Here is the input.
Amino acid sequence: MQESSTTGIVSDEQSWWKEAVFYQIYPRSFNDSDGDGIGDIPGIVEKVDYLEELGVDAVWLNPVYESPQADFGYDIADYRAINPEYGSMDDWDRLLEELHARGIKLVMDLVVNHTSIDHEWFQRSRAREGKYEDYYIWRPGQDGEYPNNWDSHFDIPAWTYDDERAEYYLHLFTRDQPDLNWENSDVREDVYDVVSWWLERGIDGFRLDVINEISKAPGLPDGDPEAEFVGGEHHVNGPRMHEFFDELAERGFGEHRDQVATIGECTFIDPGTALDVTGRESNLLDMVIYFDHVQLDGRDRFDYREWELTDLKEAMTRWQDAAAEGTWVALYHSNHDQPRAVSRFGDPEYRYESATMLATWLHGHKGTPFVYQGEEIGMSNVSFKSSDDLVDPWVINYWHNQREAGREFAEVRENVERLSRDNARTPMQWSDAEHAGFSASEPWMPVGDDYETVNVAADRERDHSVFEYYRELIALRDGMDVLVYGEFDLLLPGHEQIYAFRRALPEADRELLVVCNFSAERPAFEAPASVDVADATVVLSNLSEPDTDPSALDLRPYEAIIYEL
Ligand code: TEU
Here is the structure.
């Protein structure tokens, strides 16, 4: 397994995936090698040296399987084939080889709550063919109405009527993503075969999409179809979840389970349930992707609301407490489903400062940091001039509902610009060349307006670049057990501008103090009496000439400093 870290004295059990920094690649928007405007696998291969230079240890690749792309790959038509737009299985083999040659691991996306309507299983199920008849969740309507009052995550009813079968099928996401019926053991066996098939190809793990939704509530359908629709939080953590998780771990992951990383995306999860699924009750997951900190601004309901820094502290600390109790968490402030962090938690006017402060803040917590493509150069949200600019099915549903309610696009534009997933999916900005160096032709999504100044090539020319700072921060984690395994202790919990905390690994006699200014102002930081700063030295800071004495700091806008105590 993993090379052990330098001090060798840690309280937690060591694992490569705890010590790693992951880089997330959204293939459609990363790098286009063949000039069709769509990113592809050979395009990723062209950039493996870039990943090595950045210093990441593992890649999480969003779905690259055959798919009609109704939800851009989260609607899978064939789990064992590569989407032709992205290349071939040979290209994928090459990618794995090139990453492994550089010591970088590869984690794939496992989407088995649902498939695409184009999947052969669904085609056979809708035709009631043999064992496939119950592969999905089919129900008759209730007097011409939906089978129950469940709403999908994407602002549409969770049921769609299929003319061929003359029944409704359940879909917790788009209409093109029917939910698999996990109650059926044939379905489960087929899923386990898919998992083993990929593990045998030598991958290093899976990120498991919405995995806590696979077990649906008992007695489905229930609920009054005429009652108001209820949302996604009602169909998570179902009654057979632990049983299915254990079976998947045993029969799907089998002998590979201990070597690979399993990262569970768990919607609406609480810390107690996270402890359960990371070992207390079932042993499928190594770590969870939780949502509290990315729902503060209303993103789960597509309805922007103001939030305060103390809300963020509470959301993160709940999960740091869970980490202390023995669960492990994925640390992220960005991904393909989230608006860009610089716009959301920082300030694009202070792009360098806020991008680097947010990186310090995130990587400073206990857990495994994930860097989403473009984050390492401080890419920010984009503007949507009209409804024609919307691409993601979720935001399109939201807009259609608003339009039906009589609203103009101008009235919802702010919500869309702040919260849309499209913000994260614009092409990676490699240079100031046409189409940001992403493609030789018009990309599938427009490039960000700022690509001429915000791009990899330009960033690397700068004295202080976001990219260079990420490199330093990622390198710092290597051999710094306190950053990986140290206890987390929030300081100044009530402060609305400063987010400060301590990390401590008493066994190794190491202690860090992390101070982050989340504002464009100059708040004063005063070290609490409980923190001994007498021997403090600066380990890393995002601005030059940081104050070497943390007992009383006059912080600059978006300044971040890590001290060793
Ligand atoms: O995301 C699940 C998802 O949509 C979450 O954002 C969650 O449902 C929401 O925050 C709750 O309101 C995963 C993938 O990351 C996403 O890209 C897919 O669209 C989705 O599953 C369906 O596969």
